[in-house]
Amino acid sequence: MRRILNSIKINFISGLIFLLPIALTLYAMYTVSRLIYNGLAFVTSFFPSPYRDQFLYKAFIILSTVFVLVFLTVLIGSFVKSVFGKAIGKVVDKLFTFVPGIKGLYKSMKQLFDLVLKRSESDAFKPVLIEYPHKGKWAVAFLTGPCNEKISPSPDKEYFTVFMPTTPNPTTGFLMIVPRDDIVTIDISMNEVLKMILSGGVVKEGNHFNGHPTRSE
What we know:
Helices cover 53% and strands 18% of the residues.
């Protein structure tokens, strides 16, 4: 009975972590869209009444709402990257750390978003396969770069550091030093890998990896 309850708990948390950012994003976009739509509808209510009953009038409001929403999103994104925006972001982070129920979840999701946004375009942080926990068993990991010579196990081989995330929380995991010959590169995006990790392998883009795994060269 305890195993069943633990399994339900783990599955619930996995689903919550996967769905929460999507739900919050959709809700925020819906709320902002409604505000923009109502504002535009109020302004255009001063148009002559014959025009307000036409299809082009309603299409204009909808397209204008989408345009304003995209523009505001880009504007907010630019603001967040500014010095003032980063300062506000730190204040928001501190506020969330005082909320008991969502503190841990917020920190995990923020770390995950930072991981995707800051590393998704980097060739030095690409998905790979390594044999773990023993030969013949494979795990998904992220290649983080060449190993520092000071901690390299042997000067005769080239070693790399890889980060192996855990399921369902990819913000935790293991840092491993692996020989170059034991690293298998795979043709799959980071977003696809993160979806698989968050869902325990249930959610994936296809039934197999795109392309064939190859040894790192």
